[in-house]
Amino acid sequence: MIEAEIAFLAPCERRPIFHDMPSDKDFLPLKQHIVPISAIHGERTTFALDRHGIEIVYRTGQLEYQPTGEGRVAYLRALEEIVAKTTGAVKVVALGNGVVRRSERSVRHRHDGTTVLGRFAHCDFSPSAAGSRFWVEHLLSRGEAQQRLARRYAIYNVWRCLTDPPQDTPLAFCEPATVLPEDVIGCDQVISASNGGTIRFELSLYHYNPVQHWFYFPNLGQDDLLVFTGYDSDPARPQGVVHAAFTDPSCPKDVRPRESIDERLIAFFD
User: Which of 70, 101, 164, 259 has the fewest C-beta atoms under 10 angstroms from its C-beta?
Assistant: First the structure.
């Protein structure tokens, strides 16, 4: 067990909103809390998507990340196959909006199109149509979207370190059963689109609650893929796994700064 600082949504009367580029329209009041975080070691192999909303998939062989061109397409196709095999989905489609993040200690922090670490408790999706159905309709043709939405679908994050362990800023996760309904707040996010416009959708933010149980997986390797649920249309399954980056106080100070890639994929089921 360690203790570390994570930011949570502060009490507020307005609906929060933030943009991918700093804006005077942003409203994201956060409050820092020191939380206990359990380190998961050998028992990490018992975690499964259907029970915990998170699973570590060990990928043997080369799975090289490339940011552009045919290499990026090949990487996304490989992730689609991995998620399909892991979940039993009949079709998996990558959103293609993955992000590379680097620890603030890195001299390349915020360079090369990378984004800041998500150091606040959040989920990239939400149960509302604006945070779940929106992505299916955004990705598929109208006819196929209607057909797929009539059956179960789920949205997953696939997070992977691009640097060797240990990680100075790993991801912490909150056990879904310890998140109360009143802890969750919908938040608008606005991101820039490739056509010069913007895309507006909903994600989930969380208030601090001392009953929440946080945990993390130390020393993940580059072959370890963290697959976790962002949304599942089946309410009987774990929903929207809360996560946040944090500084691990037990990590040596001279390690290479963490670099990671986070992709999102939608899985469709019969």
Answer: 70
